[in-house]
């Protein structure tokens, strides 16, 4: 009983943040009749209004919601680009928040360049190590080799999550110092602002929650080895 509760707690601790992010995004994804424009229209409007020189907005594939500082592109997936939901406008404003950070060369925009690239590399290395662990064990039949590889995978995944944690100030700045004041200035009715704040919080936690959830694969591997 205690063992089962411990596993449930571990699962919620690791996977809970991503489940919460997905739930919040889904909960407020229904189009509203009174919304004056789509996420894409809002993003394009803000680019012009805020004079974000060189920044463009494009429609992307499912799940592709980001700002690329190298290309100066705000990308929103089709559901958000064409949607008139609170999720659509909040995520659009969040990505515009990143565009503001980089266009104005704010110090906080340096966090992504400093940590994000490293986090992505670490994440990929960790995923590869965890996938090849059973193969190494099958070929060498040496348990210690497998355990060492798993241990390295654990450290890599933890390092990746910590790297994403390091860029949280940039994400929160994009949501609450940039996007929230914009949306509060008349773009979204006051009655919807509590929901918008939830979506902005979810947007800020998206990368970290995803990195943390990746470690669930480690738990599944360990269960398999047992």
UniProtKB/TrEMBL annotation:
Membrane-spanning ranges: 6-25, 120-140, 146-168, 199-220
The species this protein was found in: Sessilibacter corallicola
Keyword Zinc applies: no
Presence of the UniProt keyword Transmembrane helix in the record: yes
Pfam families listed in its UniProt record: Zn_peptidase_2 (PF04298)
InterPro entries in the record: Zn_peptidase_2
Record protein name field: Zinc metallopeptidase
Keyword list, A-Z: Membrane, Transmembrane, Transmembrane helix
Domain of life: Bacteria
